[in-house]
Amino acid sequence: MITDVDFWKPGAGHRMRISKVVEFLSVRTTVTIVYIGLAIPRQNDLPLEPNYEFIFWGEEQPAAPNEYVQRLSDFIKNKHFDFCIIEYIHNAYLLAALPEEVKTILDAHDIISERAASFKEFGYENTLFELPTDLEIELFDVFDHLMLICEPDYQKLKDIFSEDKVLLCPHPSSLCRHEIRTSVKNIGFIGSEYLPNVDAVNFFIKKCWPAIARNHDVRFSVYGNVCSAIRQVDPEKNIHLAGYIANIVDVYNQLDIVVNPVRFGAGLKIKTIEALANGLPLVTSSHGARGLDTNGTHAFWIANSPEDFIFILNDMIEHPGIRKETASEAYSFAEENFSPEKCFQPLMKVINA
Length: 353
Known about the structure:
CATH architecture of the largest domain: 3-Layer(aba) Sandwich
Strand order of the largest sheet: 10-9-8-11-12-13
Helix content: 25-40%
Radius of gyration: 21 Å
Largest sheet: 6 strands, parallel
Number of domains: 2
CATH superfamily of the largest domain: Glycogen Phosphorylase B
CATH class of the largest domain: Alpha Beta
Oligomer: single chain
């Protein structure tokens, strides 16, 4: 695997995603990670599995692409690898260093051109790496396999490429049941400083929270690095910027309802999967539930307008039975659909072929 993401650090969905892939593979095959980012890991940050090797090429300033290609070419000259997973399409240039016999897998995470269009719709053009659609498709084509995290992305690329080229590998999350208390004291959002998360929190605080706080003695708590990007809030409005807390189980133990009012972005929302796997009632947007088919069950509730969020949350606060039923279905839905074995089965099928 080649990556420039400091995946061993907690606190962001893209890091967690890569960490889960590494964790899954390293107990089933021999994994070598070549890291070309700028962070420096501590020894105890990295997995301890015996079939795991970490090659650190990080430095204070990134090297030129041709230098990384040469380094990679020299590194693998006397080694044998069956597969190479490249994290993110912006690292596709590294394919130039790989022998033809090495099968290549792009862990795409998102379709970049669609993410750019989504950001643009909300006035955030040119804020992240962008690619035109035709160039992105051309780059997809040079890989042997494409690993997608979200059902709509998988369906789109499956219609363009062959079905055996495109692998749907959602994100697994650890299961943990939590008590569903009779009264609601704490409604929460958990996220990194990623721009859609900042927008989601500001939207919820401005458009939804005043009407909820006016009717109920509840607190809105925001957890994670997103807090560093949220403007100062009035503590009298029962809003608490809790910041990053390492033990995610402790965070979910504090919550009675989870919200994810994200309005734009791409891919599968890992915070949505995490809330479901922790068996808590979740209210999210259609975008926050992108790629999730519950077959008519209420594993979560959809709200796209402030009025929807206010109505559903007021109803949940006042009716513990609704919260308990939603939490139970959420946990069952995560248990059935988001185990590591199920999520990464298509990847292992390709590796073992």
